[in-house]
Amino acid sequence: MKMTRIFVAALAALGLSGLAWAASSGQRAPEHHHWHNAGPFGTFDREAVQRGLQIYQEVCASCHSLDLIKFRNLGETGGPFESAEFPNANDNPIVMQIAAGYMIEDGPDDAGDMFERPGLPSDAFPSPFANPQQARGSNGGALPPDLSLIVKARSHGADYVRSLLLGYDEEVPEDVHVAAGQHYNPYFPGGLLAMASPLSEGIVTYSDGTEATMEQMSEDIVTFLTWAADPHMEARKQMGVMVLLYLFIFAILVYIAYRQIWANVKH
């Protein structure tokens, strides 16, 4: 009974801490969403990751970089285009096609000049801007963050990013002044950010025929960004299950050995 009260008190404390966090940061607490990859046995929805990649390429890539992800990661174990036929992701034709769709600056050549070439699976996703100064100049002084680890870098992770994408509100509170170039979103600290709502109904046409609703697109792009932040999540979880299973079997063997050794000893 005492342990039950302690457990209930702990849950209440967690709930209150979440409310306190929202109040102190001046933003609305993110809405909880069930993710396919959540939990110790959760896995990525491959189709959702693929659709999220499409959204990144067609919508997000014009402003946001993805510096820590290489094209070959898309075809590696756990990637959206993983294929048993092509265990080496560098030979995966889908990965090669995606990479070739980008022009990569390389060099210098023998003459000392820089040049552009089609992307290779070994290349990283190129940044849309040459440097931070150019990025700020093209976005009203705001620096678009790199999205490689955005889900891990923000409190409440995937729930926060999804809520932010869906949280643009046209009804601005009377005590909030929205200056030119700013947009109101109650899920963002302070409520004002330079980025306009990046998603709108039908902004993309999914290649698999899925209806591109706001809910669907926000879930897909966040799923992709969650994968980008932890592309080896599934392998890590599988390893964890194997370790726990090993330890469980080892504990049983140790207990059996203990009983046999001390069976004839009087206590």
TrEMBL record:
Query: In which domain of life is the source organism classified?
Result: Bacteria
Location of this chain's protein in the cell: Membrane
Which residue spans traverse the membrane?
A: 239-258
Q: Which Pfam families match?
A: Cytochrom_C1
Q: Which Gene3D superfamilies match?
A: Cytochrome c-like domain, Cytochrome c1, transmembrane anchor, C-terminal
Query: Which cofactors are named for this entry?
Result: heme c
List, alphabetically, the InterPro entries matched.
Answer: Cyt_c-like_dom, Cyt_c-like_dom_sf, Cyt_c1
Q: Which residues of this UniProt protein bind heme c? A: 60, 63-64, 195
Q: Which residues form the Cytochrome c domain?
A: 47-165
PANTHER family recorded? CYTOCHROME C1, CYTOCHROME C1, HEME PROTEIN, MITOCHONDRIAL
Name of this chain's protein: Cytochrome c1
* Organism the protein comes from: Maricaulis salignorans
